[in-house]
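F.,

This is the one I mentioned.
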């Protein structure tokens, strides 16, 4: 291969190597940027941290999809590369075949020279039929040889072109995949740092997490959507995040929003919110339904079974109270609201629900 192409390949490989070095850890600049982004968040502002975690997760998801797409393109490119290499082998075979008659013709000319008994009689006009036939054969040999030389030259050029394209494809694939893999790795570490920061903030505000961190899994907002995969009232305990109020839990994003709401409520009233119910298993829904007919949803249809509803006390359960009015004015800032049906059918001022779309719109 020509020197420029080799030099280009070396440059590409060096670029790839430089990209692969930080895969074991985030580059210093990115590390510092992540640290600043996490530190600058107020630990009490859990909603902002949750949104940052969700944004980071979305970026990670998009980058991962791009990497998968690129890998699919690389697979197609490798298929093309394989085709080129097969064509290259075929050209080499054809070159080998074409060299044989040229060699044979040269050997024939050597074995049957025309100078001694052919050219002189031909020039003097006394050449016989045998001499003329030998000259015609020689002319044919020269013509065929010239054609073979031209075809061989063309095949050599095609071989060189294919080899160059194969080299560029391989180097380009290697570089593109390394770049995307480095980006995905950086985004994954960034996402992990934000989630850890969020978990630490929850612990600081009173969320109980066991020593080995298993409970922290249920408080990861990125797993909130996973809870949707389970039937109403059958969400595993590991998929739920505990509230500050002992014995109660919700889906991760709902808990995070509720803790933020609780902090705002505590600053206003000097006490934490009073909770009488949160997530209800299917069995608990059936129990409540039969104990309080008309005041509980049909088992399997309650938002309590989705980990998205709470029943409150401490004044909020009284419509028109200072606590209830404050909740009406402020709860939506944190994604919580009092559903319209709960004002009359049936009347349940204590019942509040979470909708992650609400605080996204505010």
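My design for it:
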């Amino acid at each position: 291969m020509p020197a420029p192409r080799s030099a280009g390949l070396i440059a590409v490989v060096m670029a790839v190597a430089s990209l692969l070095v930080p895969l074991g850890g985030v580059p210093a600049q990115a590390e510092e940027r992540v640290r600043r982004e996490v530190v600058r968040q107020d630990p009490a502002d859990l909603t902002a941290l949750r949104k940052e975690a969700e944004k980071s997760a979305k970026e990670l998801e998009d980058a991962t999809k791009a990497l998968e797409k690129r890998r699919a393109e690389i697979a197609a490119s490798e298929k093309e590369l394989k085709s080129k290499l097969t064509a290259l082998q075929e050209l080499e075979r054809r070159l080998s075949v074409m060299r044989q008659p040229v060699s044979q013709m040269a050997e024939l000319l050597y074995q049957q020279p025309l100078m001694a008994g052919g050219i002189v009689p031909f020039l003097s006009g006394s050449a016989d039929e045998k001499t003329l036939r030998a000259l015609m054969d020689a002319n044919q040999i020269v013509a065929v040889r010239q054609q073979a030389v031209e075809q061989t030259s063309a095949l050599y050029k095609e071989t060189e072109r294919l080899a160059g394209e194969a080299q560029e494809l391989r180097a380009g694939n290697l570089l593109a995949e390394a770049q995307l893999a480095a980006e995905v790795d950086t985004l994954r570490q960034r996402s992990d740092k934000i989630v850890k920061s969020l978990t630490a903030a929850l612990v600081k505000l009173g969320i109980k997490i066991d020593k080995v961190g298993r409970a922290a899994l249920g408080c990861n907002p990125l797993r909130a959507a996973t809870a949707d995969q389970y039937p109403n009232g059958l969400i595993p305990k590991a998929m739920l995040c505990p509230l500050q109020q002992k014995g109660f839990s919700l889906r991760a994003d709902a808990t995070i929003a509720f803790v933020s709401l609780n902090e705002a409520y505590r600053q206003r009233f000097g006490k934490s919110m009073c909770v009488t119910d949160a997530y209800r298993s299917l069995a608990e829904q059936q129990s409540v339904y039969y104990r309080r007919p008309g005041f509980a949803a049909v088992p399997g249809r309650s938002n309590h079974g989705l980990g998205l509803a709470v029943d409150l006390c401490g004044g909020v359960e009284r419509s028109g109270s200072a606590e209830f009015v404050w909740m009406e004015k402020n709860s939506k800032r944190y994604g919580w609201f009092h559903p319209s049906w709960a004002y009359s059918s049936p009347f349940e001022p204590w019942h509040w629900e979470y909708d992650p779309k609400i605080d996204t719109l505010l």
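The chain has two domains: 3-204, 214-361.

Talk soon.
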